[in-house]
Amino acid sequence: MHLNSKQYRQSELNIGGNGTFNLKDLVDELVRSTNADQNLDLIRRLITQSVRLGENNLDRLDLKILTSALHELGAAFDIFAPFKDRRKLTIFGSARARTSNESYRLAKDLANAMADRGWMTVTGGGPGIMEAGMLGAGSDNSFGVGIRLPFEDEGAPTVGVFRVEMKYFFTRKLMLVKESDAFVSLPGGFGTLDETFELLTLMQTGKAQLAPLVLLEPPSSRYFELLSEFIEEALNNDGYISQQDLSLISFAKDVETACAVITKFYSNFQSMRYFGDQLVISVHHRPSELLISTLKETFSDICQKKADFLAIDANSDELSEQGGEGHYKISFTFNKTSYGRLREAVDLINEISS
Q: The CATH number of 85-265 is which of 3.30.70.120, 3.90.1150.10, 3.40.50.450, 2.40.30.170?
């Protein structure tokens, strides 16, 4: 039998069907016995799902994967939790880059420059570009999300960063993306390209928040120039991606340009969330009539039916349903497909701010 995700969630309620005991009551009692005072519905689902997996006689290896992944994610959540209010930059790049490599120096200088701006840096916790990022940011501003690989463990830096070690690449990549507000890729091998293109896929499909992605290389390098040519000629020209998808990528040859791309993205834009059919963008500055009219004129194609961009004041009663108090907001019915164009709209919001 094949279940879709909605049917599977519904089936979680149908547990303990042998009539010997009421498992639902036992789960409810277990939830009540915890110290948790919020998100009790999700805790109940976690417990219920665990019991379901046991009843289904799931293969031991599958259960080990699930329990290890849950343990790793829980440990990572705990490490990042105290720093929720600080912006973070994830740096991707080669573990093989030596200290004399131009990319190594770029990564170190970039992390240092962003730390001066109050940002923290997240890396994969290994040697090479990852080490450079951690050293540049410093122990108080750096996270290392490591992967247990013998050849990387041997070269892992000893800098005292906030560290968590992962067994699986998928849990590691989740944390490298989930916690960060900006991303910079430097030249690297298969792993770097994998991380960069997965991030692009997530943003292109709306599975990750829009964020700056800067492809940074030394002036003497053609690594990303060649990659850009491939993307343009083999992907865009042949219709495998849309022209608007290219707006998700920025290029830089120096630290100053990379920093400028990142800081400009958050000069007015703060965050965005869905509330029903509405996409609500939080901004620092009151949206002007010029901004709203320009959005309606230029970006009607990203709305579901009509250009219904609406400015919401920071003190408006509508904020109780539109994402909290304290920030101005722009609301509209996004079509949930044109994420490259949405990035262009964010750029306009940053350009026209009063």
A: 3.40.50.450
